[in-house]
Amino acid sequence: MIKQYSKTIINVMLIAIVLYGAGRLYFQMTAGFMVSNITGELPRTKSFKQDINHLVSVNTVLKQPYTYLGKGCQSYVFLSEDKGFVIKFLKFQRFRPSIYQEILGQVPGFEAGLEKKRKEKMEKTKALFKSWELAFTKLPKETGLLHLHLNQEPGLISPIKIVDKLGLSHEIDSNEVVFLLQKRALPLETALHKMMAKGRRRKLNFL
């Protein structure tokens, strides 16, 4: 009897280890990106009036494919084919309760906890959108922001072709996602290194 239970426990542990390892490997290979992670329902927020010339310009930039570049806490980042622009798609999974929280919230006595978590996520979303709005309306040149799309509104922007970290292509309905379009800039650390190297070269030339 003891041997039988021991084998069962060992088998369960081995399965758990294999599943965990497979999950971690998949995450490393994909960076956690899935199309479902950049789509979802959010409350409507402020719409920005865009003239036709602006939309034509944005559509032109979006016609080229975008390849996975990296990610942050709030978004997945894709680089344009001409290396001049980036699209940052909102990570919807960061702004809604996890599937485990949703399941637990269906248990009697845990509904209040789920509702509290939803409100916390909503406030977090509003704060992020507010910061994006301020950057777009007050500091467009400093931030390089070209377009901000916070609402699911039909017929505004072209479909976006992206290539994920695995090299798989996807066509995204841009009206169903939250994203910002931005001129590409060097990371701060890289820019500082370049400035320092340039300064050293100038010093050597002076000497």
What key attributes describe this structure?
single chain; 207 residues; alpha+beta; 2 domains; seven-stranded mixed sheet; 6 helices; 7 strands; 47% helix; 17% strand
The neighbouring-strand order within the major sheet is 4-7-3-2-1-5-6
Main pleated-sheet profile: 7 strands, mixed
Provide the low-confidence segments as ranges: none
- Estimate the strand proportion: 15-25%
> What count of structural domains?
2
Radius of gyration, in Å, reads: 23 Å
| Overall residue-averaged pLDDT value | 78
- One letter per element, helices H and strands E, the order comes to HHEEEHHHEEEEH
Question: How would you portray this structure in words?
Answer:
With 207 residues, the protein is an alpha+beta fold. It folds into two domains: 1-30; 35-206, no CATH class. It contains six helices and seven strands; from the N terminus they run H-H-E-E-E-H-H-H-E-E-E-E-H. The chain is globular and about 70 Å long. The N and C termini lie far apart (85 Å). The mean pLDDT is 78.
Summarize the entry for a quick read.
The protein has 207 residues and is an alpha+beta fold. It is built from 6 helices and 7 strands.
